[in-house]
Specification:
The complex is a heterodimer of chains A (375) and B (263).
Chain A: H1 16-52, H2 62-66, E1 69-76, E2 82-86, H3 87-96, E3 103-113, H4 116-147, H5 152-164, H6 169-181, E4 185-188, E5 198-200, E6 207-210, H7 217-241, H8 245-253, H9 258-287, H10 290-293, H11 314-317, H12 323-332, H13 341-373
Antiparallel strand pairs in A: 1-2, 1-3, 4-6, 5-6
Helix pairs in contact in A: 1-13, 4-7, 4-9, 4-12, 5-7, 6-7, 7-9, 8-9, 9-13, 12-13
Chain B: E1 14-25, E2 28-39, E3 43-47, H1 54-61, E4 71-80, E5 83-84, H2 92-98, E6 99-102, H3 113-117, H4 119-123, H5 129-142, H6 146-149, H7 162-174, E7 180-184, H8 192-205, E8 210-214, H9 218-224, E9 227-232, E10 235-241, H10 242-247, H11 252-258
Helix pairs in contact in B: 5-7, 7-8
Classes of the chains: A mainly alpha (375), B alpha/beta (263).
């Protein structure tokens, strides 16, 4: 080699400035995101945590979690003392202090009591829609990856499913409204006037009436399930394909039918992957407002979903409160004041905890299954 | 010194009778007019260069090729003990129970050793503990694996070494008590010692089973096969008792292959 000293550079490395600039830019972008997320969480925790947590045992304000949602009454009594009471306590107070004068009375809708209704409603909607979406989604994924012949038509079907994932949730909400709320068939003896089509069933006076399920838990679950089906199908198909071909061959070569091979040697090993995808789906389902505002959610409801039902099936046909919709109502439909903040930040905080614990639960489950089923 | 007995003069009863078999993937022929009688309770090796169709032929015998889109038999037949296995009314599951298969890449399920062995029994709806235990022990004994795993039957099968995994796959295949055992390069991924163990095992197994083995190693064919079929480009070139095929090949192509000047 001529002149080996030329290998030793003088000064900074070539392109040092550009390299440094790119590095700073990329790092700045990354940390900006982290800062925004941190600010968001800090704000919610700072304002929300004091609502939920108390300094005295049991350190959690169970009333906020377990009481029904009520209107908040704020007023001064004759001594100038300010009271904040939810509607039920307020009427007790009035009864107790009959004749006492109340000053400066203000009422704030939805801001008193607790949020048990929205919590229960969100859990019901999430569980219901996940059951529906997992059943149909995993079935479709099994068909697409194990049974269907890989024809151009199947590729088109797959593409259509992928595209479905990009549709805005409000569109799913309107779709759910026009289909599940207004049009799907029900068996009834008293069809509604707006029924689109009535078919006789030839037993009793029952008819098949295309009048929809009204705004109800099941319409909401069906709409939410439609929204996350593409996610579940795509991810389930991927995790089914990730199971080694050798397992299928081995099972078939030992005399398994196709379904036996899938059930015993493919599906169990793809469950961790399917759970991973459902984990994202769970948080999305729990968090969406748009698909349920026309199909299932109601701002105020006196009874919990299972109370005051003629029969258990009416649970599916009843409207529910839901946390995201409750937050929307508190934020956008009532005038904000210092007295509504407790309900607002508290609800958001509880909502975050709920979603985080759902995710955490599925993560634990997945880790447990993975360690047992990896190959 | 080779002490193998000379092959018997009288023709052995054929367990598998392949006649004029032609097979194609879509329009591309993979096997052409294969005619081959595989004798019962003997080991037959299929040798030949990569892509010559020996695995395809093997996979025709338990019809596992059925699941490959576009793959079909275009002419000819395969009879197993006199039954045409491509009849439309063949019970495919029963056929595969009677014709076991061991794959090139060992593929134990990520379950326990025990569950792997009793898999085929569970498939046929047998869940009686005593029956499962007995079969598991017999099959593992037969696969010369029992002594190595008897104390950890309920641990993960994937914790075994490569050679043990392949013997586990053999145990799993013989647990359903097949008549015929198909082996697709069972030692391709194994070291010489594990290979030797499997070859010893084959000698034991042939008392009970008719074995067809696809191999890339001519040394392996000479060590363990009674008969060897040499294939090239989808055709059967020569099929004779192993020693004759290697020592005095009739066909110039076989000669070129076994002497290593081709393939």
């Amino acid at each position: 080699m001529n002149n080996p000293e030329s290998l030793i550079r003088t000064g900074l490395p070539k392109g040092h400035g550009k390299d440094l600039a790119v590095r700073v830019l990329l790092a700045a972008g990354t940390y900006l995101i982290v800062i925004i997320a941190a600010l968001l969480f800090c704000k919610i925790i700072k304002d929300g945590a004091p609502v939920l947590f108390t300094t005295k045992a049991p350190y959690v304000d169970l009333g906020f979690l377990l009481d029904k949602n009520e209107t908040l009454h704020v007023f001064d009594d004759a001594q100038g003392q300010r009271h904040q009471l939810p509607a039920s306590k307020y009427s007790e107070y009035v009864k107790h202090h009959a004749g006492a004068t109340i000053y400066n009375e203000q009422t704030f809708s939805y801001s008193g009591g607790g949020i048990i209704g929205p919590i229960v409603g969100t859990v019901l909607l999430t569980v219901g829609s996940m059951v529906l979406a997992l059943f149909f989604g995993v079935s479709a994924a099994i068909y697409l990856s194990e049974y269907a012949r890989q024809s151009p038509f199947i590729h088109a079907v797959r593409l259509a499913i992928l595209n479905l994932a990009g549709i805005p949730s409000i569109v799913f909400g309107l779709f759910g409204f026009s289909v599940f709320v207004l049009a799907v068939p029900v068996i009834t003896s008293t069809p509604a006037d707006r029924s689109l089509l009535i078919l006789p069933l030839f037993f009793g006076d029952a008819v098949l009436s295309f009048q929809g399920w009204n705004s109800s838990l099941m319409a909401g679950c069906a709409t939410l399930a439609c929204m996350i089906l593409p996610v579940i199908i795509t991810a389930s198909e991927e995790s089914l394909r990730a199971v080694p071909q050798g397992f299928r061959d081995a099972a078939l070569a030992m005399g398994a039918t196709r379904w036996q091979a899938i059930r015993t040697c493919v599906l169990p090993f793809s469950i961790p992957g399917i759970l991973t995808s459902s984990l994202l789906a769970i948080t999305r389902v729990a968090g969406e407002t748009a698909p349920i505002m026309f199909t299932a959610a109601v701002a105020a409801k006196d009874d919990l979903p299972w109370q005051a039902l003629a029969n258990p099936f009416d649970l599916l046909a009843s409207q529910v409160q839901a946390l995201p919709y409750h937050i929307y109502t508190l934020a956008a439909r009532i005038p904000a004041s210092e007295y509504t903040q407790r309900a607002q930040y508290g609800s958001v905080f509880v909502f975050l905890i709920l979603v985080a614990s759902l995710s955490f639960g599925s993560m634990l489950l997945r880790a447990k299954l993975r360690s047992k089923l990896k190959w | 010194m080779v002490t193998d007995l000379p092959p018997p003069a009288a023709p052995l009863p054929a367990a598998i009778r392949i006649a004029d078999l032609c097979f194609a993937y879509h329009a591309k022929p993979a096997l052409q007019q294969i005619t081959l009688d595989l004798p019962a309770h003997q080991i037959t090796a299929l040798i030949g260069p990569s892509g010559c169709g020996k695995s395809t032929l093997l996979r025709c015998i338990n019809r596992i090729n059925d699941r490959i889109p576009g793959a079909r038999i275009t002419a000819g037949s395969i009879h197993i003990h006199g039954i045409d296995i491509n009849r439309p009314d063949i019970d495919l599951q029963e056929l595969r129970r009677r014709v076991g298969m061991v794959f090139q890449k060992s593929n134990p399920f990520p379950k326990s050793i025990y569950e792997n062995v009793v898999f085929s029994l569970r498939l046929s709806g047998i869940h009686k503990r005593s029956e499962l235990d007995a079969t598991a022990e017999t099959a593992l004994h037969a696969a010369a694996l029992w002594d190595e795993v008897k104390d950890r039957l309920h641990t993960r099968a994937l914790g075994l070494s490569g050679g043990q995994q392949q013997r586990l796959c053999i145990a799993r295949a013989i647990a359903s008590q097949p008549d015929i055992l198909l082996m697709d390069e069972p030692c391709a991924a194994l070291d010489p010692i594990a290979t030797l163990k499997i070859e010893e095992l084959l000698h034991q197994l042939k008392k009970q089973y008719t074995i067809v083995i696809v191999t890339h190693s001519m040394a392996q064919a000479t060590r363990c096969a009674d008969h060897t079929a040499f294939m090239d480009l989808g055709r059967l070139i020569e099929f004779r008792p192993t020693l004759q095929l290697f020592n005095t090949p009739h066909h110039p192509q076989t000669l070129a292959y076994v002497t290593g000047s081709f393939g």
